[in-house]
Every structure is written in C-alpha cells, then in structure tokens.
Amino acid sequence: MKLNWLPSMCTLANLGLGSLSLYFTIQERYSLALLMILLAAICDVLDGLLARILQCTSEFGKQLDSLADIISFGLAPTFLILLYRLEDAHWIGPAVSVLFLICGALRLARFNLSAPSKGFVGMPITAAGVILSMISLLDERMKPGLVIVLMAILSVMMVSRIPFPSLKKSFNRK
C-alpha cells in the first residue's frame, strides 16, 4: 500500500493548526493559540521524517511545507505576541513583528533554493517561532522591551549563516 500522501497530510495539519492558532489569538485564548503552534511543530517534524522514511520527498512537498511554516511559525507567533504581549508597544512592536515575518520568509526561500545538506544554515523558522511563542507566553514577567529584543535576535538568527543541527542527520545514521 502506498502511503506517499501521508507527509503532505502532516504538512496540511501543520497549516491547519497554525490557522487555528490565529483564530484562538483573535479570540484572546492565548494558551490554546500556543498549543496549536506546538502541535504544528510536531506535525512539521513528522512530515519530513515520514517523507524520508517512505522515500517520497518531492519539490511539491518542500514548497507546501514552507507555505505552512510561514503561517504556523511566522504569522501565528507574530500575531500571538503582538496581541498578547506587545499591544501597548506603539510602532516598535508591529515593526519588529514584521521584521520577524520577513526574516522567516527569507529563511524559507533560502532553504528551498539551497542544495540538500545535513544541517541548517540559519535558525529554522519552526525553532524561532516556537521559542518566541513559548518564552513570551510562559514567562509572564518578561517585559515587552525584552520580547522585542528577543524577536529581533531570532530574526537575525534566521537569516544568519550560523549552522544549526538537523534531526535529519541523526535519522540518516540509523
């Protein structure tokens, strides 16, 4: 039985969960919004893992994954942080949020054009979005200024040339 459709279903689940995160953010149900981002991250890991296990990686899957990731780990965390933590940050909150989203898109575009490798160049948007969401939501004492600095640092790390390890490397060894 062919299961080539399974990785794409995980990617679509990632996209759906990211969309639900936006919905819950708008409803001011921030904990549920965070949970949707975390579940989307699990789906994001699973889609690539399943594609490699089933040997059905494709250019279509790579592009679909990036589209889902910009929603689940770019747009959803940005809205979550803007509406929950930076609503009173005047112009700087939206400006840094847009920077985060732009850097995430640039990171995804660069990844899609790069040759396959065993690691990542620049922090993956999944990691940046999850870190931003978790730290900002789970630490209530974090001041808006610190959230803005964190967003700026994560933005720079996504477009940097810093190497980051990949789960693919350890999976390929097994």
TrEMBL record:
<dbReference type="InterPro" id="IPR004533">
    <property type="entry name" value="CDP-diaglyc--ser_O-PTrfase"/>
</dbReference>
<dbReference type="GO" id="GO:0012505">
    <property type="term" value="C:endomembrane system"/>
</dbReference>
<feature type="transmembrane region" description="Helical">
    <location>
        <begin position="144"/>
        <end position="164"/>
    </location>
</feature>
<keyword id="KW-0472">Membrane</keyword>
<dbReference type="GO" id="GO:0008654">
    <property type="term" value="P:phospholipid biosynthetic process"/>
</dbReference>
<feature type="transmembrane region" description="Helical">
    <location>
        <begin position="5"/>
        <end position="26"/>
    </location>
</feature>
<keyword id="KW-1133">Transmembrane helix</keyword>
<feature type="transmembrane region" description="Helical">
    <location>
        <begin position="32"/>
        <end position="54"/>
    </location>
</feature>
<dbReference type="InterPro" id="IPR000462">
    <property type="entry name" value="CDP-OH_P_trans"/>
</dbReference>
<keyword id="KW-0812">Transmembrane</keyword>
<comment type="similarity">
    <text>Belongs to the CDP-alcohol phosphatidyltransferase class-I family.</text>
</comment>
<keyword id="KW-0594">Phospholipid biosynthesis</keyword>
<dbReference type="InterPro" id="IPR048254">
    <property type="entry name" value="CDP_ALCOHOL_P_TRANSF_CS"/>
</dbReference>
<dbReference type="Pfam" id="PF01066">
    <property type="entry name" value="CDP-OH_P_transf"/>
</dbReference>
<keyword id="KW-0444">Lipid biosynthesis</keyword>
<dbReference type="InterPro" id="IPR043130">
    <property type="entry name" value="CDP-OH_PTrfase_TM_dom"/>
</dbReference>
<dbReference type="GO" id="GO:0003882">
    <property type="term" value="F:CDP-diacylglycerol-serine O-phosphatidyltransferase activity"/>
</dbReference>
<feature type="transmembrane region" description="Helical">
    <location>
        <begin position="90"/>
        <end position="108"/>
    </location>
</feature>
<keyword id="KW-1208">Phospholipid metabolism</keyword>
<feature type="transmembrane region" description="Helical">
    <location>
        <begin position="120"/>
        <end position="138"/>
    </location>
</feature>
<dbReference type="GO" id="GO:0016020">
    <property type="term" value="C:membrane"/>
</dbReference>
<feature type="transmembrane region" description="Helical">
    <location>
        <begin position="66"/>
        <end position="84"/>
    </location>
</feature>
<protein>
    <recommendedName>
        <fullName>CDP-diacylglycerol--serine O-phosphatidyltransferase</fullName>
        <ecNumber>2.7.8.8</ecNumber>
    </recommendedName>
</protein>
<dbReference type="InterPro" id="IPR050324">
    <property type="entry name" value="CDP-alcohol_PTase-I"/>
</dbReference>
<keyword id="KW-0443">Lipid metabolism</keyword>
<keyword id="KW-0808">Transferase</keyword>
